[in-house]
């Protein structure tokens, strides 16, 4: 079982999408800007950062067989994230060989 540091982590908030702690897309009214989309589902800023993360994990695997690339992705999302946005993020992750998902849902306390 991989620890969180061994996986790529994507955080989806109502305002942005982050890979690790780096913002890769700023959302507009909870949606991905058209300029960030290639076709219907590929998110350009997310795609570029995921390519770097996957390359880094493969590089580590080449030099340390005890640290295999597991194709794992941790998705941390606000419970209000629309399904369509989540689907678009997962599509982009899948294009980058990340297909084993862990979901962590952030819930706000009742105000």
Question: Would you write up a description of this structure?
Answer:
With 111 residues, this protein is of the alpha/beta class. It is 30% helix and 29% strand. The protein is built from two helices and seven strands. The chain has helices at 44-63, 83-95; strands spanning 8-12, 16-19, 22-26, 37-38, 42-43, 72-78, 100-106. Strands 3-2-1-6-7 form a five-stranded mixed sheet, with helices on one face. Strands 4-5 form a two-stranded antiparallel ribbon. Strand 1 and strand 2 form a beta hairpin. The mean pLDDT is 90.
What are the key terms here?
globular; five-stranded mixed β-sheet; 111 residues; single chain; 2 helices; two-stranded antiparallel ribbon
Distance between the termini: 37 Å
Count of strand segments? 7
Spatial sequence of strands, sheet with the most strands: 3-2-1-6-7
Determine the structural class based on helices, strands and strand pairing. Answer: alpha/beta
Name the poorly predicted regions. Answer: none
What's the average pLDDT?
90
What general outline do the C-alpha atoms trace?
globular
Indicate the proportion of strand residues: 25-35%
Task: Give the % helix.
Answer: 25-40%
* Element-level helix/strand string: EEEEEHEHE
Largest sheet: 5 strands, mixed
The Cα radius of gyration reads: 14 Å
The number of helical runs is 2
**Oligomer status:** single chain
């Amino acid at each position: 079982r991989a620890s969180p540091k061994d996986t790529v982590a994507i955080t989806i908030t109502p305002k942005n999408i982050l890979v690790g702690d780096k913002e890769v897309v700023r959302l507009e009214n909870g949606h991905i800007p058209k300029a960030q989309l290639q076709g219907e589902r590929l998110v350009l800023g997310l795609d570029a950062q995921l390519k770097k993360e996957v390359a880094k994990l493969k590089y580590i695997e080449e030099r340390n067989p005890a640290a295999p690339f597991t194709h794992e992705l941790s998705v941390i999302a606000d419970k209000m994230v629309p399904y369509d946005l989540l689907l678009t993020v997962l599509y982009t992750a899948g294009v980058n060989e990340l297909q084993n998902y862990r979901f962590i849902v952030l819930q706000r306390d009742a105000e």
